[in-house]
Design brief:
Alpha/beta knot; Ribosomal Protein L25, Chain P; alpha/beta; eight-stranded parallel sheet; about 35% helix; five-stranded mixed sheet; 13 strands
Length: about 240
């Protein structure tokens, strides 16, 4: 059944209106759905409804709601602050980590980040990143959409850390703990923040700044992972390990 995104909808009424032009275009012109077609609508906040189309226009699609279900969120929040790699790899990171259950993503600018974006390009990237997260949630049948933060510099991201969170910074040099041992030693934590560095790793100053803020240095194994591989790995490992607790 085709899925469509309708943010903030509570599904308290018997009929809802799909008004987003991109969603209407996809429904009407790409999928060519007609009156009477069965569809699924999710609100990105844990609710999903099944219904049938009762009318279609270029401005709105009316849908009769047949059933509604609610999926509770995981008690542990997974947050990924990741340096933006070159080309379109960050979109892959958003897509795959959304499928794996990340709750929020912070695109990072670090000392060794190789891309430079002006204000206009940052805004364009932010819109694109949000669209990728929505599409990944739709296709993976996930009921929530991860929060995509604005592009943020590393010191600011460190200041955003909450005192009740477990913060982990994998990097390549110095004394580090294995990632599973760090998570398993904190089974009751309700929020895990992962920091993933750029090609060339975090600088020593960045690692020291993170450690002063309470971040735990970690190793991701004996091989050097690319940025996208490392980001996907920590979210997959984090979700697997907290589900075992």
């Amino acid at each position: 059944m085709h899925r469509f995104y309708l943010p903030k909808e509570s599904f308290n009424q018997p009929t809802i209106q799909l008004n987003d032009r991109a969603e209407i275009h996809h429904l009407k012109n790409v999928l060519r759905l007609k009156k009477g077609a069965a569809v699924t609508i999710f609100n990105g906040e844990g609710k999903e409804a099944e219904g049938r189309i009762i009318s279609i226009s270029s401005e709105a699609v009316s849908i009769d709601i047949l059933t509604v279900k609610t999926i509770p969120f995981s008690e542990t929040i997974l947050s990924l602050a990741c340096a933006i790699p070159k080309k379109a790899k960050f979109e892959t990171i958003i897509e795959k980590c959304t499928e794996l259950g990340v709750n929020e993503i912070i695109p990072l600018i670090t000392k060794r980040t190789e891309i430079h974006l002006d204000a206009a390009r940052r805004q364009k990237k932010a819109s694109r990143y949000q669209a990728v997260a929505i599409n990944a949630a739709r296709q993976s049948k996930r009921l929530s959409v991860p929060a995509i933060h604005p592009i943020t510099d590393f010191p600011t991201a460190i200041k955003m850390l909450r005192k009740d969170s477990l913060a982990i910074i994998p990097h390549l040099d110095g004394e580090r703990k294995e990632l599973p041992s760090v998570i398993n030693a904190n089974p009751k934590c309700k929020r895990i923040n992962f920091f993933i560095g750029p090609e060339g790793d975090f600088t020593l100053a960045e690692v020291n700044l993170a450690k002063k803020a309470g971040c735990i240095p970690a190793s991701l194994g004996n091989t050097v992972l690319k940025v996208d591989t490392a980001a996907i790995y920590v979210i997959a490992a984090g979700r697997l390990l907290i589900n075992k607790h």
